[in-house]
Amino acid sequence: MRIGLLTSGGDCPGLNAVIRSAVLHGIKSYGDEFVGIRDGWRGLIEGDHIELSRQDVRGLARQGGTILGTSRTHPYNHPQGGPENIRERMRRDDLDAVIAIGGEGTLAGAKRLADDGVPVVGVPKTIDNDLKATDYTFGFDTAVSIATDAMDRLRTTGESHSRCMVAEVMGRHVGWIALHSGMAAGAHAILIPEQRVSIDQVCEWVQQVHARGRAALVVVAEGYVPEGSEEAVADKGQEADGRPRLGGIGNWLTDQIEQHTGIETRNTTLGHIQRGGNPTGFDRVLATRFGIKALDLVHEQAWGHMAALRGTEIEKVNLTEALDGLKEVPASRYEEAKILFGR
């Protein structure tokens, strides 16, 4: 078979490991040929691609980002998009199937195309770990590790000056990165989109820590909605796809803590540093296993399905299951972490 690989949506560490394992598995096990599609769905629609050989993917597992480039192009919104045009383009480019690696938006497009007769399977990728039907997605562990390291550093400088330190991390709709990195770094308060917490409660936690002669660490997800507000802070305009560009909750929280407590407070927004760099060992292994499974799904002609992690096993799941809402942080997990807030 001649198979196209594309990466779409936001980048994250582990994408290249998927590409590597799929290509090597396909060449060795099935005698397949591979095409790397540039910039996600745009490249598929416009026929912009490169040949991928064993040499092209050698050593990719440890490399962050994506060698294919990515974009947020939607396969149905592009002027030359839609299933008929895509099928014709695949015929002209001699492509038998496509492996789409991406998050909710990418997989929703893949599901719609599969329903319309396009031979496509998915690989789940989201740094926020918010896709249902899979326990974890690659990129998440790396983001948590980067954020934890940054928070460890913030705590040492905070202790030196008896300051409260606020760390803003990624998390548009869910707080998995904030929860895991905050717990790992021993944060004294963690604020996530799924839970409303009053500024009075946050300040109480900060004051409890300060009263013991310690410097508080507050972790907040970018999509956290302050109590009394209707939406997350978005002071940076809009994304190209029209979504509000989140960011600024760390600044807002810093001002509120200082005003309410009088404690000197500083904030750091980690932003895209969480997306960059080389993947952790966990993410390299998970991405590699996803790539192998996706290639097997192609040969099963399991269109409209994706690879998923269930416990320790990689399984086939229907994209419909993965797209049935976001995987939010359960209240029980937040209550578990909350036990140590202010301690």
From TrEMBL:
It catalyses: beta-D-fructose 6-phosphate + ATP = beta-D-fructose 1,6-bisphosphate + ADP + H(+). Its EC number is 2.7.1.11. Gene3D superfamilies: 3.40.50.450, Phosphofructokinase domain (3.40.50.460). Transmembrane segments: none annotated. Its cofactor is Mg(2+). Mg(2+) binds at residue 104. The keyword Nucleotide-binding applies. ATP binds at residues 10, 72-73, 103-106. The active site is at residue 128. The record marks 105 as: Important for substrate specificity. It holds the Pfam family PFK. It is found in: Cytoplasm. Substrate binds at residues 126-128, 163, 170-172, 222, 266, 272-275. Coiled coil: none annotated. It comes from the Bacteria. It is an enzyme of class 2 (transferase). Keywords: ATP-binding, Cytoplasm, Glycolysis, Kinase, Magnesium, Metal-binding, Nucleotide-binding, Transferase. Residues 2-297 form the Phosphofructokinase domain. Pathway: Carbohydrate degradation; glycolysis; D-glyceraldehyde 3-phosphate and glycerone phosphate from D-glucose: step 3/4. Belongs to the phosphofructokinase type A (PFKA) family. Mixed-substrate PFK group III subfamily. Homodimer or homotetramer. Catalyzes the phosphorylation of D-fructose 6-phosphate to fructose 1,6-bisphosphate by ATP, the first committing step of glycolysis. This is ATP-dependent 6-phosphofructokinase. It comes from Nesterenkonia aerolata.
